[in-house]
């Protein structure tokens, strides 16, 4: 029966079939006459009515779910969504739920329409005979090369649920680490942005009011006040040019970073040399390298192929180039620890633990320990940085905003002293 169904299946690609799925709201009664309501994805209303009748529900109303005015397409799919998806499917497969059934449960229970559509597309491909690795390979944006390689290795070894559980843990730890790094970088950047915004408002709206008062004094203004008044006059006349220049600089920076490998490498190298922040980025790259290599190696991916995949997961082009160099050295027979030493990027402890892991045949175990150590180092450094930045930020805001206030009151103090 299954072979006949496959032979008569239309030649349309599974992606197109999945794209035709829509979200419907329905209302009906069960065999006891109890009113039931729900939402479900289906190809069309007739398919959904048939499915409801199969479940013992007499459908009364089946209609497409109206899209809200804002956010109708749903939130974008984040790496954390993929981590949760991996954890859910691994848990269900370990409990004995078939993969198609697991995908159906996950898809119908997801609140994000985009994620729901993605899962249903994968389920449709698996139902048509594709493996899970083949199904997710059609969505490279959501499932990166590392994820696809791990799933493929898990299927080959017959331990797919274990690999998916490992991938879920890996992604959860990686997202937690990224969150710490973003916290370390975002906090000072946000404070600087707020300080500049407040300063601009003072220069454009507040200081001109004081300037009209100063004109009636008939006395010469202090040099500091003259400087601030001059800045205010410039901002009032050319605020639009300043705004355009800042916007153009931001756009140019983003485009240059995304399109120029040389600039991106220069920026990453510069960040690694910054005090405090540079050490955090070093530790983060080592933690990501160690955990990613440990996960891929544990899943059975060959070492050279694993290193090729790991390079892009370090989050820094300096370490990415170093990992490619390690891969080339390992490919010609060098041990991993010796290849790591040649890059001059990995601390002695990391290379020594890698050497011990290679000698004991437990490379993945040692790398997991290295990753845990450096992830904790990042956590501690970020917490320390936050404590250090709080007083510095208060001083910074006091100098910027307080300086303008003092500049405006200096003439008043001078006039009072003269009187």
Automatic annotation (TrEMBL):
Main location, first listed in the record: membrane
Pfam families per record: T2SSF
Family annotation (InterPro entries): GspF/PilC, T2SS_GspF/T4SS_PilC_CS, T2SS_GspF_dom, T2SS_GspF_sf
Membrane topology designation: Multi-pass membrane protein
Annotated TM spans: 184-207, 237-256, 392-412
Family affiliation: Belongs to the GSP F family.
Protein's UniProt name: Type II secretion system F family protein
Organism in which the protein naturally occurs: Lysobacter zhanggongensis
